[in-house]
Design brief:
alpha/beta; L-arginine/glycine Amidinotransferase, Chain A; 3-stranded mixed beta sheet; 11 helices; 17 strands; globular; AmidinoTrfase; Glycine amidinotransferase; membrane; mitochondrion
Length: 416
């Protein structure tokens, strides 16, 4: 049976161990547990493994979220369509938006709103280029086309959030399998760029593509209210089952040799175990959890912005936070977001305010409307570069989600 060394102190380790033992019995190796060795902020942990330089021939190299940024992929607004209102979409959205999905599923997002979002993303790209960052964009696709597999039918969604799909570990690009049927063929928008990187020396891996049959989803998943969601998440129960590996890349956050992942509505333990085995002994994949009724993507909940420095969402406390504190990390709780209730956030929460993009350890791109958040960064000695992508936020992501960093100048080191 799979042995799980689960975190204690408020987390549901027993439930997670029981669930994994039942559903993933053939998997024998344990998921890595967080080390308790002490380090101070900015100090690299002393380990037997030496720091590794970027391969000379590869254009891809990114080991964490804060080394100096040199090249990045930014998503596209163009062609974005509302996903059909299937069970996995319903479980990841809030009740006040269900009418929107029921009436607009399979159709383009509102045109006037998207025009403003597209202009915001163009400004974002221009600022990145002015800061010396090479910007790449995915290909344009027709996401309105209906496609059929032996297991389901769907229309597409978008290629707006590269962070959801691409997991960059060192010189390797891993294509995530995803969990929404509307995103099954999203990889096609990124293939021209990935093939180019591969020809130049990057490593390229595609995770096992799930069937996305009915067996992957709990069609009786009770999601009528937040209280039910809290109870289910605490018990380790989600709309995705353990039928086959699935994960979104955005459920992983990187700190050198330590990768932190969460079990969520789109990422199952089977998928996390696949990543752990694929990366091998060179990396430690840690499973962490949060008091979150609707976990989906980690970077608006737990965003590592420097060596031993993390933004931790005060509304979604981490069950294992004491482990980070004992290891010498500085845990910062960002201020309450300023975004008004009237602004449409069809696919996300207000906490996109903490979904920032580090240009390096001393410069951050953040929301121009979030003045308290900018002041927080200034107190941390980090210079804010303010941009507004408020209309682009409506598609489900902040600056971190809208991007996937391809190359950061630095070494592969240990910080935990």
């Amino acid at each position: 049976m799979l042995a799980i060394r689960a975190f204690r102190g408020g987390c549901r380790g027993r439930e997670a161990a029981h669930l994994l033992g039942t559903l993933l019995r053939p998997l024998r190796n344990s998921v890595a547990c967080v080390s308790t060795s002490k380090i101070t902020q900015g100090q690299v942990a002393t380990q037997d493994v030496q720091a590794e330089e970027a391969p000379k021939q590869s254009p891809v190299w990114s080991c964490n979220e804060w080394d100096p940024l040199e090249e990045i992929i930014v998503g596209r607004v163009e062609g974005a369509h509302v996903p059909p209102f299937t069970v996995e979409v319903k479980a990841n959205t809030y009740e006040q938006h269900w009418d929107f999905y029921q009436s607009h599923g399979g159709q383009p997002f509102p045109a006037a709103h998207m025009a403003k979002a597209a202009a915001e993303i163009e400004t974002f790209c221009n600022v990145l280029e002015q800061e010396g960052v090479t910007v790449r964009r995915p290909a344009l696709l027709d996401h309105s086309k209906e496609y059929t597999t032996p297991d389901f039918k769907s229309t597409g969604m978008y290629a707006a959030m590269p962070r959801d799909f691409l997991l960059v570990i060192g010189d390797e690009i891993i294509e995530a399998p995803m969990a929404w049927r509307a995103r099954f063929f999203e990889y096609r928008a990124y293939r021209p760029i990935i093939k180019e990187y591969f020809r130049q020396g990057a490593r390229w891996t595609t995770a096992p593509k799930p069937q996305m049959s009915d067996d992957l989803y709990d069609h009786d998943y009770p999601i009528s209210n937040v209280q039910d969601r809290h109870k289910l998440a605490a018990q380790g129960k989600f709309v995705t089952t353990e039928f086959e590996p699935c994960f979104d890349a955005a459920d992983f956050i990187r700190a050198g040799r330590d990768i932190f992942a969460q079990r969520s509505q789109v990422t199952n333990y089977f998928g996390i175990e696949w990543v752990r085995r694929h990366l091998g002994d060179q990396y430690n994949v840690h499973v962490i959890s949060f008091k979150d009724p609707n976990p989906m993507h980690i970077d608006a909940t737990f965003n590592i912005i420097g060596p031993g420095l993390v933004l931790s969402n005060p509304d979604r406390p981490c069950h294992q936070i004491e482990m980070f504190k004992r290891a010498g990390w500085t845990v910062v709780h960002p201020p309450i977001p300023d975004i008004p209730d009237t602004h449409p956030l069809w696919m996300s929460s207000k906490w996109l305010s903490m979904n920032v993009l580090m240009l390096d350890s001393k410069r951050v791109i953040c929301d121009a409307n979030e003045v308290p958040t900018m002041k927080m960064f200034e107190k941390l000695g980090i210079k804010p570069i303010p941009i507004s992508i408020r209309h682009a936020n409506s598609l489900g992501g902040g600056f971190h989600c809208w991007t996937s960093d391809i190359r950061r100048r630095g070494k592969l080191e240990s910080y935990f």
